[in-house]
Amino acid sequence: MVEDFCNTATHLHGEDVLARPDTAAAWLAAHSGQASLGQPELEALVAARETIRAFIADRTDPEAIRNVNALIQAVAGPPAIGPDGTLAIRPAVGDPAADLICAVLAALLAHGLTGQGGRLKACAAPECRWVFYDRAPSGNGLWCDMDICGSRHKMRAYRARADPS
After folding, report:
1. CATH for 147
2. How far apart are CA 29 and CA 61, in angstroms?
3. Which one of 3, 86, 121, 142 is separated from 136 by 20 to 30 angstroms, measured CA to CA?
4. What span, in angstroms and rounded, lies between the C-alpha atoms of 162 and 164?
5. How many folded domains does the chain comprise?
6. Which residues contact 83 (CB under 8 A, 6 or more apart)?
């Protein structure tokens, strides 16, 4: 859920599913059951997405931590234990955008509670920032795709070494 939400923007190609009402409606219908949202709600989703992406990119950045905590306070009520014993984040306000943001935040929380949170990463390429789940046994992956972003980084480093000027 977190990957799907964060990757509604493909920075590498300048695409944003949530930027246009028609593409946003299709994504929302497939992922949240909502038919469509108004422009203010779409803008709230984009802001939430970028806040979550910034947190995933650097979980130790005080500003990213402050921003994700502010997002949680803005959209979520106190956590609750469900009938099946799971911890749930409930929306504090009754709007569809907050419902979706809470679902994403709940998935992010679940990743953190299971110890898998560190494997959810943002690509180290600043022009990409694609969110991916690092399945490498060592858990030290940096790139969403070694053939694209990793190769670009290696080529830039090679060129920098080859041309010292």
Report:
1. 1.10.3300.10
2. 34
3. 86
4. 6
5. 1
6. none
The residues, ordered by sequence, that sit 6+ positions from 16 with a Cβ below 8 Å of its Cβ are 8, 9, 10, 46
Q: With CA atoms as reference, report the closest residue to 128 among 49, 10, 46, 18.
A: 10
Full-model pTM? 0.82
DSSP track, the chain: -HHHHHTTEEGGGTEEGGGSHHHHHHHHHHHTS-----HHHHHHHHHHHHHHHHHHH-TT-HHHHHHHHHHHHHHB---EE-TTS-EE--BSS--HHHHHHHHHHHHHHHHHHTT-GGGEEE-S-TTT--EEE---TT-----S-IIIIIHHHHHHHHHHHH---
Determine contact, residues 52/71, Cβ cutoff 8 Å. Answer: yes
- The values of phi and psi at residue 151, to 5°, are -65, -40
In the structure encoding, which two tokens stand for residue 18, read together?
């949530």
Range of the domain at 78: 2-162
Q: Determine whether 56 is exposed, middle or buried from the number of CB atoms within 10 Å of its CB (0-12, 13-18, 19+).
A: buried
Q: In this prediction, what percent of the chain has a pLDDT beyond 90?
A: 28
